[in-house]
Design goal:
The chain is α+β, with helices and mostly antiparallel strands. The chain has three domains: 58 residues; 189 residues, Rossmann fold (3-Layer(aba) Sandwich); 74 residues, no CATH class. It is built from eight helices and 13 strands. The strands form four sheets. Strands 2, 3, 4, 5, 6, 7 and 8 form a seven-stranded mixed sheet that branches. Strands 1-9 form a two-stranded antiparallel sheet. A two-stranded antiparallel sheet has the order 10-11. The protein is elongated, with a radius of gyration of 39 Å.
Amino acid sequence: MNPAPLTVRLALFVALLLPALSFAQTSPPAKVEPVATERFLVIVETSAAMQKRAENVQKALGSVISSGLSGNIGYGSTIGVWTFNEQLFTGQLPLQLWTPANRQRVALTMVQFLQQQKNEKAARLPVAWAAATNIIAQSERITVLLITSGNDPVTGTPFDAAITESFIKNADAQRKANMPYLTILRAVKGKFVAFAVNMPPWPLEVPEYPDGFKPAPPPAPVVVETNPPAPVVKRPDPFILAATNTIYLAETSPPVEVPVVAPQPKSEPTNVVVAKAESPTPPRPNVPAAAAPVETKSQPATKPAEPVAVAPDPAKFPIVTILVAGIALLLGVMVVFIALLRWSRRSVGASLITRSMNQDDR
């Protein structure tokens, strides 16, 4: 079998396949979200006192992260996770990047991380809080989520007394329900400005930034056209004559401008035909004298006029029709290619048999 014709057929097959596939290729616009500047730090107590509360801790954290802290976690915010008992453990879970698209994955990652932790030894919150205050002092804007048993008080904030009072007042109820405390603290430039003590399973309360510390509203998302579609030029109806009308006789023919003739008094309507040597058009209907264009010569009566080829509007063809046409074209090309391949093999087989018979005759 000669490889040269087969190579040519393969090249022809690929050349016919590419235009069919190009119909279905569309590039949606890329939406660029503004990146948030706020940081989030989750500190979880893993002492022996949290052993019975561990499952509820995981549920509470998963719900908070998947909901974006009730809409308070912005696009591109970073979330760090620390654990502590007698010691502080940092860096065991990589920094998580939160977006609305991957919020469920981030929440699941954190829950699975807590499931691997051992709840043992006593809790020493000051060990973890000393390291957290250093991070807070270096952050422009940060929110701390402190999940604890409430046995150790929070110190070093303007809200120490209110937080301790909430711990003491609700200690029995949270212990009997095996529920933790979720304390939320917000700081701006190293200064604590708002707080809230949550007691799951009660609804989440997120403190708002006071006036003067509220973040600026994020800019509107920018939509970038990666591959904008070609503009569709709507052509006027060729059967309507107007002062600015352009008539297209064929898809590739240049536009023919129809000049405007000044109205003539007492002029009779005339029959107008816009014609071309390659594709003549049918006679035009009677046109009033007020918009009578230039009269042109019509074709001989012996040759009937052909209809004007009007280009279809691409906007009227849905993407499903284009896909069906591309698939049909692909199947047709494959059938032709298979037929050519079988014909080539039969030709080669016949030639070999003929040569063998000729040799036998000799």
